Amino acid sequence: MTKLHELSIAEAGRALRNGAVTSVALTEDALARIAAIDPALDSFITVTADRAHADAAAADADFARGIDKGPMQGVPYALKDIYDTAGIRTTCHSRLRMDVVPEADSVVAAKFKAAGGVLLGKLATHEFAIGGPSFDLPFPPARNPWNRDHIPGGSSSGSGAAVAAGMVRMAMGSDTGGSIRGPAAYCGTVGLKPTYGLVSRRGVFPLSTTLDHCGPLSWTVEDSAITMGIIAGHDPLDPASADVPTPDFMAQLHGGVRGMRIGLPRHLYATAEGVSAEVIASIDAAAQTLGELGAIVEEVTLPDYDLFNACGRVIMLTEAYAIHEADFQSRPLDFGKLTWMRMMPGAFVTGADLHQAMRLRRELCASVNRTLLTYDALITASALAPAPAFADIDPDNPPTFPIQALTFNVTGNPAMSIPTGFSSSGLPLSMQIVGRAFEDATVLRIGAAFEAASGLASRRPAMAAA
Questions:
Q1: Structurally, how many domains does the chain consist of?
Q2: How far is CA 464 from CA 107, 173, 261, 419, 439, in A?
Q3: pLDDT digits (tens, 9 = 90+) for 262-273
Q4: Which of 94, 159, 174, 179 is flagged as catalytic?
Q5: Residue 91 belongs to domain with CATH number
Q6: Torsion, Cα of 161, 163, 166, 169 (10° steps)
Q7: Is 155 annotated as catalytic?
Q8: In a domain, 295, yes or no
């Protein structure tokens, strides 16, 4: 029999509706699992047990009355601790916000509540979604369930760890330079950065307003598609929100890839510094699998990753420093060391620097979108190597993780990290699937086809089988 924590959102939904399980049972199982496993992983900052029990009881009562609010009703989930939650602290993993208790939910949290979801708690992040992994913060950094001596990625570190360990089927993260896709890659989960503007960020603490995206980490592609159906949509009070029709993310999810044209910018990662031969081989094998499924996969050329990285870093550091400038001037010692070191260069970016970055951004976006006129999607690397070990990170210098994700924060295209296999050390390997703007459903469709062919969704870390 499938254990409760191994049920996907879709499977849990069917079990809830046919009476095989209750939301209270799912919730109690999840809370027990958190209590048993999370002390070794530190993925949760706040466990909202009372709220979870109340949400579960309400969901079961609605089912009993014939009220069905949709696929998340009665299903437990968790939020990165930068999402505002009414009456529940939102710390951003920082001593500067230890006592911040929002009066209102973020838009995403409110949508989950309206959909009947069960909030299990708030998850670890790098401080303000940028500074980590650090040991000088009020809470310890999360650890990787596949090997707790290794990092789970950042900054949605707790989200990646909690999903991989089976404490929750889906957790919300945020992505400014790879903070959804990096943890997904290192933890062996699915991680979707939606098209810029497709999911409201109102009530989510910002890092870089023109690069920030909100999206899910989940165990399966289908669970991310279900989640997107709940959280996507125009928000007139979010200035970046796109007023476009909300796609049907499930309609063609299992339509396969036959006849699709997929571009492979292999040059971006195959010769990159720090790339693992295992990563190259796994993406080559994934491309072959997609070809065997009927897609036409061809190598393409994009601008060098260093251009995207330089462009994105200038924008990110400028905007991040602007957001935190008052605290840097009045409370600089309350920031963690790595946060301070990462953000402070933003104080020295000139107007000319920012102008040049914005000009380059337009050129880079145009180049990617021209390629996507010919191809339905791209596949490329997410992480260039398996998750680094904590022991290999210098605690006195901000680490540079070998991932290639910032490209699609600069352009705003939908991009999803999906597992492609495992390294010889037993750590997950991955690739990115990238689509045209607002064609997130196509990204999910390709991911679902590859996931079904690979069978990797059945692989879970030993900790998750306890």
A1: 1
A2: 31, 20, 37, 17, 33
A3: 999 999 999 999
A4: 179
A5: 3.90.1300.10
A6: 170
A7: yes
A8: yes
